[in-house]
Amino acid sequence: MVILMQTMHREGRIRHQALNQVRFYYEKSPHYEMGYLMGEIIERYRKMVNHARRRHTWRSTHVHWLVKRIQTIQHLYFEIVHLCGMMHEIQLKYRSVMEFADMTSKVPYYKMQEMQHKIRQELKKKELERQKAQKKILKNRIKAAKKEGYWEKFVLPPKKKGPWPHDYGWDIGEFFW
User: Fold this and answer.
1) Which value, in Å, is the radius of gyration of the alpha carbons in the chain?
2) Per-residue pLDDT at 64 exceeds 90
3) pLDDT (0 to 100) of residue 115
4) 8 Å CB contact between 169 and 88
């Protein structure tokens, strides 16, 4: 029996060392991080589904238990949303690393950077033009409102601030508020 336990312990250590080598080589890569996050998302989703599908007999004393169950499901849902946001950030995190850049392109890396810079400049110009056009439209509306005597009633809409503290590259809006 002791020999069997020693053999199992030795084989387990050998497997563990082999896995640590694989982890050492690949843990600083987007593939490893995406796989890890995907595993976390699947685990939380599985827990959420188990809570949602659990059978329930309706009795008047189970209201507090049911509320707690719904809160647990909601908490797991918000964790899943946050992990999905982190998944979107991985691409942004590793896009500047040459090792994980898209190598299928025939354009050299420095030219891709120049093209990206030009695209950003064009987007800035378009945004400035759009803002100028909006200001012009707003001035015309204010002028028309003053001319008709409605300026006292005319109120500028408040600027909306995003509901989320971080920008994940996509917008949920005010669905949850």
Assistant:
1) 28
2) no
3) 85
4) yes
Chain centroid offset of residue 48 CA:
19
Q: What pLDDT was estimated at residue 141?
A: 86
Which residues, other chains included, contact 19 with Cβ-Cβ below 8 Å and sequence gap of 6+?
none
**Helix, strand counts (H, E) of the chain:** 4, 0
Q: How many CB atoms lie within 10 A of CB 118?
A: 10
Going from N- to C-terminal start, the domains of the chain cover: 2-101, 106-161
- d(Cα 78, Cα 56) in Å, to the nearest integer? 24
Q: Is the pTM of this model over 0.70?
A: no
Q: Two tokens at 139?
A: 């001035």
Give the burial string for 73-110 (b: 16+ CB within 10 Å, else e): eeebeebbeebebbbeebeeebeeeeeeeeeeeeeeee
Judge contact between 138 and 130, C-beta under 8 A: no
Higher pLDDT, 99 or 111: 111
- In this predicted structure, the answer to whether residue 157 has a pLDDT above a threshold of 70 is no
pLDDT (mean) for 115-141:
91
